[in-house]
Amino acid sequence: MSDSITSSPPPAFLFDLDGTLVDSVYQHVLAWREALEESNIELSVWRIHRRVGMSGGLFLNALMQETGIKLEREQVEKLQRGHAAAYQRLVSQVRPLPGAKELLAYLTEMKVPWAVATSGRLETAGPNLKILGIGDDVPVVTRDMVRHAKPDPDLFLAAAAKLGVDIQNSVVIGDSVWDLLAARRAKALGVGLLSGGYGQDELERAGAYRVYADPADLLAHLNEVGVRPAMDEE
């Protein structure tokens, strides 16, 4: 190949956190149920699960629309505090998803830029980042840092800006339809993982270019999303 031909850089990877890198979706579901029950609001677990991935405020608004319950601002804030407290009691059960640490280490080794963008606030995201061994050198965007969370694109746009990359040369990795809707609105390529409980059809309808089981499965197929194996590098 001629030296005058310039190869394009690998895409940047923008990761959701819960259900994408750490196995924490059901702890969040149970934490929300506990917080809701403390306010005498009964909701089926499946209804809660279908909204995980949104910001806490939007999550509560959506659930209240479904049930017809009206909440004042003070009640919403109480529920958010209750969720955070309940999650802290459950976080010791959370583990990295299969292949998550290996995937991040490989991307770092290959000099592929990556960041984390989560709808969780820092108080709940912080322990999960520690579980993954993610330090201060990795760009992280939490709900506290943007005006709107998923399905708005703000989190991923902010993460791309922190990396100094073009959002259109980025791959958003997420486990929920909210991640993929946000990716589509940001004009990034969306890749879905089944590790958060959504089905392949749902993720594809929301805009996923590819769907993999978990981070380990994605690591085995990185060539399908624009990352060349080390043996192909010259």
UniProtKB/TrEMBL annotation:
Keyword Hydrolase: yes
Superkingdom per UniProt: Bacteria
GO molecular function, one term: sugar-phosphatase activity
InterPro entries, per the entry: HAD-like_sf, HAD-like_SPP, HAD-SF_hydro_IA, HAD_sf, PGP-like_dom2
Annotated keywords: Hydrolase
Pfam families: Hydrolase
Protein name (Swiss-Prot/TrEMBL): HAD family hydrolase
Native source organism of the sequence: Phragmitibacter flavus
